[in-house]
Design a protein that fits this description.
One of its GO terms (molecular function) is phosphorelay sensor kinase activity. With 399 residues, the protein is of the alpha+beta class. The protein is built from ten helices and ten strands.
Length: 399
C-alpha cells in the first residue's frame, strides 16, 4: 500500500507540489497558533495576511487541479523536466525580487516577513507552472505539426508510387498478359484438341488469365488505397449481363441466372464491378459442374441488395472463418479476390454477409443508394439481350 501511494505521488508530482504548499501554510498557521513565531498574534488577522493566505491556497489548488484534471498527461510525462525547472526558476526569481524589496521595508514583524516570503515563493512557482505548461504545449504542437507534415509527405510519395504501379500494371503487365492469352487461344484453335500442343496452349491460356485476374484485382485494390473511390450514381444492374457472359466462359456446364430490375442505381463507381465479378466467378469455380448460380438484385429507396446464390455443397466452417481475410499465398485462386471484395464494398460504405450450409451458399452485398447530390448516372455496360418482364424486372439465363 505504501509503495502504491509513493508511486502515485511520483506520477502526480505537480499535485504533490501543491499539497506541499498547503502543508507549509498549515505548519505556518500552526506555528502562529502555538506562539512559536515571535512578534505575531495567534493568527494574524490583517487584510494583507489574509490575501496572502487566499493566494497561497488558490495557487496550490491550481497545481493540484492542473495535475489531476489535465486531459493530456503527455505534457507532464514528456516535458516534466523543463516544467519543473521553470517552476523552480519562477519561485526563485520572484522570491529574490521580493527579498530585495523587503530590504527596503524596515519594521516588518516576523509574521509579516514569513507571510511575504511564502506568498512570493508560491506565486512565482505558479507563474513558472503556467510558463512551463505553455512552453510544453507549444513544443508539443510544433512536434505534432512536423510529424503531420512528414506523414503528409510520406503519403504523397506513397500515392505517387501507387499511381506508377497502377499505370505499370495497366499498360505493361496487363497488356503483355493479354497478348499471351491471345496467342494461346490461337494455338488452341489451330492445334488438334487431342494433341499435346493443344493441351499446353490451354494451360498457358488458363494461367495467363489467372495472372490477368490477379492484376485486375491489384488495380482495383490500388484504386482503394489511392482513395479514388469517390462515390457517384452507378447503374450496377447494367453491368450484370456482361458478368453472366464471362461466367459462362468459366464453366459451360454451370447455369447462371439473373433476377432483378433492369436498372439499379447505387452510390458507387464502376470499380464495384470487380467485387461482384469476384463473387460470381468464385461461385462458379468452387461449385460442382451442373450447378446453378443466381444473381438476385433487390432494390429499394433505402438500399440495394445483391445476392450471389449457388446450390453447391456449401463452405466448410474452417474456410468460412477466414473467407475474407488477406491470404499469404495462392493469390490467383480466389483468396485475394475475396479479400479485395470486402475492401471494395466497405470502401463504398457497403456490407457483405455470407450464409452457407450443405444446400448452397449465399453472399449478400448491401450497397447504399444515391441521393440528389450524387451526380448523374453512369450506365455501366449495356444490358445486352435482357428481356423486361411485366413487373419491371429483368431476367437473363446463361447455360
Amino acid at each position: 500500500m505504501e509503495d502504491s501511494t509513493t508511486d502515485m505521488w511520483s506520477r502526480r508530482w505537480v499535485a504533490a507540489i501543491g499539497v506541499g504548499f498547503l502543508g507549509a501554510l498549515a505548519l505556518e498557521l500552526l506555528a502562529y497558533r502555538v506562539g512559536v513565531v515571535s512578534g505575531a498574534e495567534r493568527i494574524p488577522q490583517t487584510g494583507q495576511f489574509l490575501v496572502g493566505v487566499a493566494t497561497t491556497v488558490g495557487v496550490a489548488a491550481a497545481f493540484i487541479v492542473a495535475d489531476l484534471r489535465l486531459t493530456d498527461r503527455r505534457l507532464f510525462d514528456r516535458y516534466g523536466g523543463p516544467i519543473v525547472r521553470r517552476i523552480i526558476a519562477g519561485g526563485a526569481l520572484f522570491l529574490t525580487v521580493n527579498v530585495v524589496f523587503l530590504l527596503t521595508e524596515p519594521g516588518l514583524t516576523t509574521a509579516e516577513l514569513f507571510g511575504w516570503l511564502r506568498w512570493a515563493t508560491v506565486v512565482g512557482s505558479g507563474a513558472g507552472l503556467v510558463v512551463g505548461l505553455s512552453r510544453a504545449r507549444a513544443i508539443q504542437n510544433a512536434v505534432e505539426a512536423e510529424r503531420n507534415a512528414v506523414r503528409a509527405d510520406m503519403l504523397e510519395s506513397q500515392r505517387d508510387v501507387l499511381t506508377y504501379l497502377n499505370s505499370l500494371l495497366r499498360h505493361e503487365v496487363l497488356n503483355g498478359t493479354n497478348v499471351i492469352t491471345g496467342y494461346a487461344k490461337l494455338l488452341e484453335e489451330v492445334e488438334d484438341p487431342d494433341s499435346q500442343e493443344h493441351e499446353h496452349a490451354t494451360v498457358i491460356r488458363q494461367h495467363s488469365e489467372d495472372v490477368a485476374g490477379v492484376i485486375q484485382n491489384i488495380k482495383a485494390f490500388l484504386t482503394v488505397l489511392q482513395g479514388e473511390t469517390t462515390t457517384g450514381r452507378y447503374d450496377v444492374a447494367a453491368a450484370i449481363p456482361e458478368l453472366l457472359d464471362r461466367a459462362r466462359e468459366l464453366d459451360e456446364t454451370t447455369r447462371v441466372e439473373y433476377d432483378g430490375p433492369q436498372q439499379a442505381v447505387v452510390r458507387t463507381t464502376e470499380v464495384i464491378d470487380r467485387a461482384l465479378w469476384n463473387l460470381v466467378s468464385n461461385a462458379v469455380e468452387h461449385t460442382p459442374a451442373g450447378t446453378t448460380v443466381r444473381v438476385c438484385v433487390d432494390y429499394t429507396d433505402a438500399e440495394c441488395r445483391i445476392a450471389v446464390v449457388d446450390d453447391g455443397d456449401g463452405i466448410d466452417p474452417e474456410t468460412r472463418a477466414t473467407l475474407f481475410e488477406r491470404p499469404e499465398s495462392n493469390l490467383s485462386r480466389g483468396g485475394f479476390g475475396l479479400y479485395l471484395t470486402k475492401q471494395l464494398i466497405e470502401a463504398f460504405d457497403g456490407t457483405i454477409a455470407v450464409e452457407t450450409d450443405d444446400s448452397g451458399t449465399t453472399a449478400t452485398v448491401t450497397l447504399p443508394v444515391p441521393d440528389e447530390t450524387d451526380g448523374s448516372v453512369d450506365p455501366g455496360t449495356q444490358p445486352g439481350t435482357d428481356q423486361e418482364t411485366e413487373s419491371g424486372r429483368s431476367t437473363a439465363t446463361v447455360e
